[in-house]
Design a protein that fits this description.
- This protein is an all-alpha fold.
- It has one domain.
- About 85% of the residues lie in helices and about 0% in strands.
- The chain is rod-shaped and about 195 Å long.
- The protein starts with 14 loop residues before the first helix and ends with a helix.
C-alpha cells in the first residue's frame, strides 16, 4: 500500500491528497456537497424546494394563519366592544344609583322638614291650648282673689270698728257703740 499522504513542495500534507487516499479506499471522489462540480444541480434543487415551500406557505398555510388571526382579532374586538358596553352600562347604573341616592337624600330632607313643621305646628297648638287653659285658670284665680279681697276688705271695716271701739273703751273707760265706731272709721277712711 502506498503512502496515504501526499506532500507538497513545501512538505505539508494537503487535504485533497488526504481525501483522495481515503476516497480511493471507500469509493472515490470528494464529499458531494463540497464538490464544485455538483453546485449547479444543488442550486437547481434548492430553488425548486424553496419555490415549492413558498407555494405551500402562500397557498395553504398563510391563508389559514390569516383566517385564524382575523377570527381572533374579530373575537378580541367583540370582547372589547362587549366590555365597553358593560362598562358603559355599569357607569349608567352607577349614575342612576347616585341620582336616586341624591333624590332620596333630598326627599329625606323634605320629609324631615315636613315632620319638623308638623311637630312645631302641633307644639304651637298645644302651647296655645295650654295658654288658654292657664289664662282661664288665672282669670278664675284672680276672680277668687278679688272676691276674697272684697270680703276681707268688708271684714276689715268691721274689725277696724270693733278694734276702735275696744281701744276707746280701754283708753277712756266709756263704752262706745259699735255703730258709732264704724261711722268714725268710715269718716277716717274717706
Amino acid at each position: 500500500m502506498a503512502s496515504t499522504e501526499a506532500k507538497t513542495e513545501t512538505g505539508h500534507t494537503t487535504a485533497a491528497a488526504h481525501t483522495e487516499a481515503a476516497g480511493g479506499e471507500h469509493g472515490g471522489g470528494a464529499f458531494p456537497p463540497l464538490d464544485a462540480a455538483t453546485f449547479p444541480s444543488q442550486l437547481f434543487w434548492l430553488v425548486i424546494f424553496f419555490a415549492a415551500l413558498y407555494v405551500l406557505l402562500a397557498r395553504m398555510v398563510l391563508p389559514r394563519f390569516a383566517t385564524i388571526i382575523g377570527d381572533r382579532k374579530a373575537q378580541v374586538d367583540g370582547d372589547i366592544a362587549r366590555a365597553q358596553a358593560l362598562k358603559d352600562e355599569t357607569q349608567a347604573a352607577l349614575a342612576a344609583y347616585e341620582k336616586r341616592l341624591t333624590d332620596a337624600r333630598g326627599n329625606a330632607g323634605d320629609i324631615a322638614k315636613q315632620t319638623r313643621d308638623a311637630a312645631q305646628a302641633h307644639a304651637a297648638a298645644q302651647q296655645a291650648k295650654l295658654d288658654a287653659d292657664l289664662g282661664a285658670k288665672i282669670k278664675t284665680a284672680e276672680d277668687q282673689i278679688a272676691a276674697s279681697k272684697a270680703k276681707a276688705m268688708a271684714s276689715v271695716h268691721d274689725i277696724a270698728a270693733d278694734t276702735a271701739a275696744d281701744i276707746v273703751a280701754q283708753l277712756t273707760g266709756a263704752t262706745t257703740l259699735k255703730a258709732a265706731a264704724a261711722k268714725a272709721v268710715a269718716a277716717v277712711k274717706n
